[in-house]
Design goal:
The chain contains 4 helices and 14 strands. By secondary structure, the chain is an alpha+beta fold. An 8-stranded mixed sheet has the order 9-10-11-12-6-3-2-14. Strands 1-13 form a two-stranded antiparallel sheet. Helix 3 packs antiparallel against helix 4.
Length: 215
């Protein structure tokens, strides 16, 4: 009779679970994070994509953003960086259509919706929170689709040691920015408690150094 170890039977280990970092390693483009001047915790958040594989992902710096329904956003300091592969309009794998291109607006949308996910208003009934989130998500998309509009200002920040131009906006919940790196990947970021004006970004040399803090 085959024996099963206690760890395997009790599910006390996560060795059989896929590693989050593995999805990051599948990407064909470089990941970005805060540069070496940031000395705090670094952690993996998520990746996403479509038929073409991994097309975007996020990594965090500082405290993991969290939310308490009864108290609202916690007093955490964090900056989350979104990397989006540059993808022109291209045909789908089956040849029947085209896949949507990615752009700076894609990075702005992902960053804006990411900030919303951890900033629901406190002391709001569940249904009203859902309606608020739907409304604000729509607003975030409209803003991302109009980066030259009055909802954004210009901000210059270092990327790989060179000045790069970003679209930037603030709200009562935090800040969002988006731009394009010199090597032509789109970069977004959102945060709270950490000033965006003092940030600098660089290619992540070793994504495995970022901590998997799921669970």
């Amino acid at each position: 009779m085959e024996m099963t170890s206690e760890a395997e039977a009790g599910g006390t280990t996560r060795e059989s679970e896929p590693r989050l970092v593995d999805s990051f390693l599948l990407a064909s483009f470089p990941w970005y994070g805060l540069d070496d001047a940031f000395a705090g915790p670094r952690w993996l958040q998520s990746t996403g994509g479509g038929d073409g594989g991994v097309e975007h992902g996020t990594v965090g710096h500082g405290d993991m953003p969290s939310y308490l329904a009864e108290a609202g956003p916690r007093d955490h300091r964090f900056a989350v960086v979104v990397t989006v592969a540059s993808r022109p309009v291209r045909r789908s794998a089956d040849g029947t259509g085209v896949l949507e291109a990615t752009s700076v607006s894609s990075a702005a949308w992902l960053a804006g919706s990411g900030l919303l996910s951890c900033t629901w208003p406190p002391q709001m009934e569940r249904q009203m929170r859902e309606e608020w989130l739907d409304q604000q998500t729509s607003v975030a998309w409209e803003l991302a689709d109009d980066l030259e509009g009055p909802g954004w200002s210009a901000l210059s920040l270092p990327v790989d040691g060179e000045a790069a131009q970003f679209h930037y906006r603030e709200s009562e919940y935090g800040w969002v920015l988006a731009g394009t790196t010199p090597n032509q990947v789109h970069l977004g970021a959102y945060g709270r408690g950490m000033s965006a004006y003092g940030l600098a970004f660089s290619v992540i040399k070793d994504i495995t150094a970022y901590e998997d803090r799921r669970g």
